[in-house]
Q: What sequence folds into this?
């Protein structure tokens, strides 16, 4: 009985982890779809999965990674998310806008 309970607990934990990973992928795909005018939902999902393969699970994490090397940001986005030139430039611009908005909010808070 104890083994069944432990197994059930482990399975519940794994289901929760899968659900969390799926939610993160969906959120990233939604962000990418919004940032790129010509990405289809399926292509945005592929890009989100590519990002996840690189340990990038959120738009905030993508912004952090991109912010570490903005000069090469478009190339990084193309490589890590398997985006084309146009889409990578759009994501780069969306991340730059987001960073500006966050900087303005931070300045108002200070």
A:
């Amino acid at each position: 009985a104890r083994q069944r309970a432990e197994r059930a607990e482990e399975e519940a934990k794994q289901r929760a982890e899968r659900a969390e990973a799926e939610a993160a992928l969906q959120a990233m795909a939604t962000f990418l779809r919004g940032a790129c005018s010509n990405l289809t939902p399926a292509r945005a999902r592929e890009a989100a999965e590519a990002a996840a393969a690189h340990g990038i699970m959120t738009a905030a994490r993508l912004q952090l990674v991109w912010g570490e090397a903005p000069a090469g940001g478009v190339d990084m986005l193309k490589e890590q998310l398997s985006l084309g030139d146009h889409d990578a430039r759009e994501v780069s611009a969306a991340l730059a806008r987001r960073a500006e908005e966050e900087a303005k909010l931070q300045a108002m808070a200070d």
Summary: Residues 16 and 34 are 27 Å apart (CA to CA). The chain has a mean pLDDT of 84. Residues 2-35 form the longest helix (34 residues). The radius of gyration is 17 Å.
